[in-house]
């Protein structure tokens, strides 16, 4: 028999205020739809749930374009052969058996009616699944994908972190396409909302209730990291406490600003000069660099006399940014 899938404790986080994702480069703001070509590689990306390590996405040579929202919602038949580096081959059929990543058998699956979604969930005429495990309580006749992160039937909502506590399935909707492209690897990262609450999932532990968010006016900026409602700006499930909603805007990466302040994730960079602050492109496309007339920054920290940070700046910043004057 297939195993019942559940999760327990929350995964590790970088701190109570903002996720520890300083190495990631946010995708440019964009509406839901196709993105540009992504980097190709053959390595896997995985996360750990209690008691197991799962591989949910791979970098892919066969699928170098990020799918559209409609493509993430599409129920797909299993492939005819295994291809580890292709997310479109997450499940495949061998005779009357269905297998998924790492050659795991989906025990009891009905091969003739089996379909899957790119976000690692699947169904047949009798059951629903997360990878090879049965999704207890899910109705296969009504189970479907909302985007790359969120899945629901008539009674419940799921992400790879498990069933979303207190979510109202009938009114629940995705606020973006649900995918973050991490160097060509797709990971689930998304806002969703129902008639009363806003939720966020960041590829760590369970989905979070965004407690201060007003569902009716909430919108995601389309990157799965930032959102706003009529009163508050959010980074993940945390609010950017001092941000002025009317003048707030993203600058690039995880930097943002309003008319008076500069922010990194949900933290204010208190020493930053808002009049001259700007984001600096990094050579690797993901290191977070910025500068103003007084300081240069790696993430939200002025590099000052730190030789490690100074070396990082020299390695990653364009030559014209390192040659102008001594690093500060």
Quick summary of this structure?
By secondary structure, the protein is mostly beta strands.
What do these coordinates show?
The chain has 328 residues and is mainly beta. It contains three helices and 31 strands. The chain has helices spanning 69-73, 307-316, 319-322; strands at residues 44-49, 52-58, 91-94, 97-100, 104-105, 115-116, 121-123, 128-130, 133-134, 144-145, 151-152, 157-159, 162-163, 173-174, 179-182, 185-188, 190-193, 198-201, 208-209, 219-220, 226-228, 233-235, 238-239, 249-252, 255-257, 262-264, 267-268, 278-280, 289-291, 296-298, 301-302. The longest helix has 10 residues, at 307-316. The N and C termini lie far apart (62 Å).
Going by helix content, strand content and strand pairing, the class is mainly beta
Morphology call: flat
Question: In which range does the helix fraction lie?
Answer: under 10%
- Measure the end-to-end span: 62 Å
CA radius of gyration: 21 Å
Biggest sheet statistics: 4 strands, antiparallel
Number of domains: 2
Which band does the percent of strand residues land in? 25-35%
Largest sheet, order of strands side by side? 6-7-8-9
Supply the number of helical segments: 3
Count all strands and give the number: 31
Indicate the mean pLDDT. Answer: 82
Identify low-pLDDT runs: 1-55, 57-64
Pfam families: DKNYY
Region (Disordered): 1-43
Organism: Arenimonas terrae
Protein name: DKNYY family protein
Blueprint of the fold:
Blueprint: E1 44-49, E2 52-58, H1 69-73, E3 91-94, E4 97-100, E5 104-105, E6 115-116, E7 121-123, E8 128-130, E9 133-134, E10 144-145, E11 151-152, E12 157-159, E13 162-163, E14 173-174, E15 179-182, E16 185-188, E17 190-193, E18 198-201, E19 208-209, E20 219-220, E21 226-228, E22 233-235, E23 238-239, E24 249-252, E25 255-257, E26 262-264, E27 267-268, E28 278-280, E29 289-291, E30 296-298, E31 301-302, H2 307-316, H3 319-322
Antiparallel strand pairs: 1-2, 3-4, 4-5, 6-7, 7-8, 8-9, 10-11, 11-12, 12-13, 14-17, 15-16, 17-18, 18-19, 20-21, 21-22, 22-23, 24-25, 25-26, 26-27, 28-29, 29-30, 30-31
């Amino acid at each position: 028999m297939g195993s019942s899938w559940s999760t327990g404790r929350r995964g590790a986080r970088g701190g109570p205020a903002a996720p520890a994702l300083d190495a990631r480069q946010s995708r440019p703001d964009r509406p839901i739809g196709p993105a540009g070509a992504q980097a190709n590689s053959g390595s896997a990306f995985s996360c750990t749930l209690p008691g197991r390590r799962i591989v949910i996405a791979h970098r892919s040579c066969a699928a170098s374009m990020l799918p559209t929202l409609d493509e993430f919602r599409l129920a797909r038949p299993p492939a005819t052969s295994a291809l580890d580096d292709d997310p479109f081959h997450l499940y495949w059929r061998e005779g009357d058996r269905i297998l998924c990543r790492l050659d795991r058998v989906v025990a009891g699956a009905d091969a003739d009616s089996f379909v899957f979604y790119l976000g690692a969930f699947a169904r047949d005429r009798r059951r629903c699944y997360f990878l090879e495990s049965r999704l207890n309580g899910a109705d296969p006749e009504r189970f479907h994908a909302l985007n790359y992160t969120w899945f629901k039937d008539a009674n419940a909502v799921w992400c790879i972190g498990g069933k979303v506590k207190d979510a109202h399935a009938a009114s629940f909707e995705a606020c973006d396409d649900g995918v973050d492209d991490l160097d060509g690897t797709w990971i689930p990262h998304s806002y969703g909302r129902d008639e009363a609450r806003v939720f966020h999932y960041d590829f760590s532990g369970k989905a979070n209730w965004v407690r201060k968010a007003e569902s009716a006016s909430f919108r995601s900026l389309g990157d799965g990291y930032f959102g706003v409602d009529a009163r508050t700006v959010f980074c993940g499930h945390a609010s950017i406490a001092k941000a002025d909603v009317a003048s707030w805007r993203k600058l690039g990466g995880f930097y943002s600003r309003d008319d008076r302040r500069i922010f990194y994730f949900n933290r204010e960079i208190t020493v930053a000069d808002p009049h001259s602050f700007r984001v600096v492109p990094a050579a690797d496309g993901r290191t977070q660099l910025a500068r103003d007339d007084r300081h240069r920054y790696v993430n939200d920290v002025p590099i000052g006399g730190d030789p490690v940070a100074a070396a990082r700046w020299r390695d990653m910043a364009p030559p014209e940014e390192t040659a102008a004057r001594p690093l500060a």
